[in-house]
């Protein structure tokens, strides 16, 4: 029996393992110090050539990460030395590994354990991107003992608060991370080693500036900061000044305010070289037809379609799904639930042929495998958004194609802006034979389904608002948009009324306020709403004695529904009479106004009581009351949807254009005669076919009857002997000559069970039965003797 190791032996073993680990760290630090990014970085091609720990290299190898990309070759050697980095690279170039590997290595060299709390913080603008970063982190860091957590909106906050303080690496969105830093008990940031801001410009564009400022306020100044983005902007530069200390600039930006570029290969193109970029000029009312025709002609492709608003995504998804183009359709936008967003992301990633309708929430950082086409139905707000959208395909050296739909008013200005950023797109021509119009189908859907019509109205309003809030008025020209034609292309009976107040500055401020409100804490919003409700209720109670309900507050939200304004008009809360007179009458078509009208007695209908039975009968009879009102006003619609009177007569001028009356009569008679002749020929042909079919069925029945008879005869002649006559020649001759011969009537049909054979009686023939007993034989003998 083996002896258990003693305590001293265990201590010695632990001591020796710690010494080995410290020696490895010392050796690793020595390799990092000796590594020169300028001289050695250009020759590095594999991850194994970098001074990385064995655990990280093993995780990279098992995750199939072997070769370095340009941004990784330029960034990792610098970040391993602990310097701040401001990186810019084209989409799909591998920025995720460029900051995850230095993050893991920084924690290894700092000897961080699970008891040291938060040591690395990674911030991404969207939930999908945060999930993708976390998945890559778990793959390459599986051989390390660090604890990592993912915190995003849409998850259980209480569940996260109980565990977030024990995490060494935290990946999440700005709103949820800021909430945990403010509310979670025991979340300590004094040991923070590294901060990563992925897609920093998008974080600021989405209205997360306040949350990022709050996060930076909780972090210690002695930390390493990595800021990555595919594009550069002034807001990102301002953020870099606040959070980065003498950073190294890497990438294709032309901003030299942060020192010389560390790029070893020169300037990096904004878009991948394997991407084929096209654009087409399409009128606004023809965009959905073009998109439908494109999808129908690319059913074996993986397509990503971008819209400018979530309402357009919903409408396009619901209508196209009803029309069934023949390919799997998916939708993804910000207001979806977290579970639904993750399920859609997984389905589209795993699908081989699918079409995803999405907003710009998908345009940043997400890596969907093997996307063939990126379609931009709505023009991007700037060249940076264009770069991020098209960057979803042609990633990591794969081929891809993109197509941008531009309005005639957007084409010239947008192409100039793309060319100024070294982006060139070829013009694509659409074959009119291939293009199909779906406007009648959309009109039918909106007419039959009120929900679909409401979605169309919301899509119309959201598109015009998205154009209105754009800063670049050279590209986006609201006045040149054909509103009526666009509404008709969506299947709507008319263009909904939209009012913009305050100009572009107010629209921009409203948009920024909306983004901040969307990303604000829900608890604070609920408290503010409760305070406002209490104040309003008190005022109403003191003044008018009226208590406001949640439905009143719901309808007071302008631009939330199409009929909110009309509801306010009905309830009397819209505006004063003076303001109402200034506006158009169409805006107040449901408002109730008191006016004094001049009544003319001669024009008033006779409402006196009938004085005779005849008048009473005429008043009560619907048929008699209609006699003096002419023909009924019922309408009928032709195939084009144009209304016509039920008994519509042609005008005299139109009739005379057709020629003389006799000539028109002859033409009409000739036309109808030819039509009748054609109909007669068709009827004769149909009758002939019916006769032939009837004859065929009769012959088949006779054939079956003969086969049955022959089978019956065959059964009777199983012995193989045929008998002709009775065997007595004289008796046979007498039977043939006798009129009372017992002869069975021949029949081709098999007799039924209720039929008996037709026989002729004969006096000298006794009909007997087969005797079965002695008594039967005695009776038969008696009858023969008597006969």
Automatic annotation (TrEMBL):
Q: State whether keyword Transit peptide applies.
A: no
Region annotated Disordered, chain positions: 1-23, 250-269, 651-756
CDD domains linked:
DEADc_DDX10, SF2_C_DEAD
Q: Where's the Helicase C-terminal domain?
A: 274-446
Compositionally biased intervals (Acidic residues):
709-718
Coiled-coil features, chain-numbered ranges? 510-537
List each copy of the Helicase ATP-binding domain by range.
76-250
- Mark out the compositionally biased spans (Basic and acidic residues): 678-692, 699-708
| Keyword set, alphabetical order | ATP-binding, Coiled coil, Helicase, Hydrolase, Nucleotide-binding, Nucleus, Ribosome biogenesis, RNA-binding, rRNA processing
Q: Which residues form the DEAD-box RNA helicase Q domain?
A: 45-73
Q: Is Hydrolase one of the keywords UniProt gives this record? A: yes
- The biased composition feature labelled Basic residues covers 1-17
Q: What does the record give as the reaction this protein catalyses?
A: ATP + H2O = ADP + phosphate + H(+)
Residue numbers covered by motif Q motif: 45-73
Q: What does this protein do?
A: RNA helicase.
Q: Which family does it belong to?
A: Belongs to the DEAD box helicase family.
Q: What is known of its domains?
A: The Q motif is unique to and characteristic of the DEAD box family of RNA helicases and controls ATP binding and hydrolysis.
What name has this protein been given in UniProt? ATP-dependent RNA helicase
